[in-house]
TrEMBL record:
Gene3D superfamilies: P-loop containing nucleotide triphosphate hydrolases. It comes from Rhizobium altiplani. The keyword Transport applies. This is Sulfonate ABC transporter ATP-binding protein. PANTHER family: ALIPHATIC SULFONATES IMPORT ATP-BINDING PROTEIN SSUB, TAURINE IMPORT ATP-BINDING PROTEIN-RELATED.
Length: 260
């Protein structure tokens, strides 16, 4: 058995003071294999985003084990690309320059930055808009730049927190198709947070449903749909049945409390 790309074991996270402590995450055990696409779903407040933020190294945790390739995660790193719902682009830089900025911070030379940034802008199908500023781009285009930036320094893992949550339905479907194309071509481990169960089924190899109060893993579903995925699958009986099972797990998890 090869080392998992990501391993969380008995991970706990608390918020607040001793008098008013909230148990945000309880005994999280989760492993992601190399090149696996795993989605986290669950009711608001179940700790999905907190868990992703901990894996990104942006938040600490109170006890447990957190490893990538067998080594402890102690902070942010270039081995993990992060994409949030908000695009966090620098408004005074063009699309290409936003990607170059991330690459220069990773230590590439000016020429390397330009070449790699251009390649990744093309990868997300924004070549014609490389010299456009964020104010000139639609929401979907901005998110493409954010994805290009996160992929540009070749992370081993991509962490995505509701990346398509602010987009309209058509743009969201286009972004899902783009993401699956990129993932199938370049293969990297993805941990993806979403409220959209259809999106989770469409994108994932595995879906992890979380319950609330405290946040814990409630159920795991293996997605047996063939790849490459396409939008016609959404209407198939297997897709619909899995979607119903995941929704049922989320509903069950949203009714749990400390007395469970």
């Amino acid at each position: 058995m090869s080392e998992p790309k990501l391993k969380l074991q008995s991970l706990n996270k608390w918020y607040g003071s001793k008098k008013n402590r909230m148990h945000a995450l309880s005994d999280i055990d989760l492993e992601l294999a190399d090149n696996e696409f795993v989605s986290l779903v669950g009711a608001s407040g179940c700790g999905k985003s907190t868990l992703l933020s901990i894996v990104a190294g942006l938040q600490g945790f109170d006890d447990g084990v957190l490893l990538t390739d067998g080594a402890p995660i102690v902070g942010p790193g270039l081995d993990r690309g992060v994409v949030f719902q908000s695009y966090t682009l620098l408004p005074w830089l063009t699309a290409q320059q936003n990607v170059e900025f991330a690459l220069s911070a990773a230590g590439l030379t000016g020429a390397e930055c330009r070449d790699v940034a251009r390649h990744h802008i093309e990868l997300v199908k924004l070549g014609r808009f490389a010299d456009s500023f964020p104010s000139e781009l639609s929401g979907g285009m901005k998110q493409r730049v954010a994805i290009a930036r996160a992929l540009s320094y070749r992370p081993k893992m991509l962490l995505m927190d509701e990346p398509f949550g602010a987009l309209d339905a058509l743009t969201r479907h286009q972004m899902q198709e783009l993401l699956t194309q990129i993932w199938e071509e370049h293969r990297l481990t993805v941990l993806f947070v979403t409220h959209d169960v259809e999106e989770a089924v469409y994108l994932s190899d595995r879906i992890v449903a979380m319950s609330i109060n405290p946040g814990r893993i409630n159920a795991t579903f293996h997605v047996g749909l063939a790849r490459p995925r396409h939008q016609d699958m959404i209407a198939t009986p297997d897709f619909i049945a899995l979607q119903k099972d995941v929704l049922a797990a989320i509903r069950a998890g949203s009714q749990q409390d400390d007395g469970h």
